[in-house]
Amino acid sequence: MAIIPDQKDWTWVLERPCPECGFRAGKATPATAATMLPALLPRWQTALRRANIEERPDPGTWSVLEYGAHVSDVFEVFTARLELMLREDNPTFANWDQDQASIDGNYSSLDPEEVSSELIQNGLDAAAAYGAVPEEHWERRGLRSNGAEFTVVTLTGYFLHDVVHHLHDIDA
Fold it and tell me: What's the N-to-C CA distance of the chain in angstroms?
């Protein structure tokens, strides 16, 4: 069975805590990302060292390896979106289909050590990028392809929720 694409609009996490993972995205700032991301990375490293990480818990759920590859990509995508918001006024983000990225990137057959290494580097790069944003730029805006509007602050919370939520998904 193939993964069923997640069609939920997760922007609600900016208004209330996530009942699944408990993260409060509405309280996050770029400064939060700068300190929180490096603190989360060891949890990803540990998870990616588990036995049988390429096995899916059920046919419709990603394996730990696939989640790790996804989060590595999430770091890149959200760093690029941040950089676009800082460079342009009110940009629209290109659509990113995470499920298609999983297929195109062949997540399920990647080398776990390479995934871990890239995830760590991309996470540190994201932390540095978010940490470098001066507070006077936190209200700069950008639009997702579906019209959802973000500020740098709300993009940060939305992004951090994804990273934390996936740790919850893999029991890490």
Answer: 25
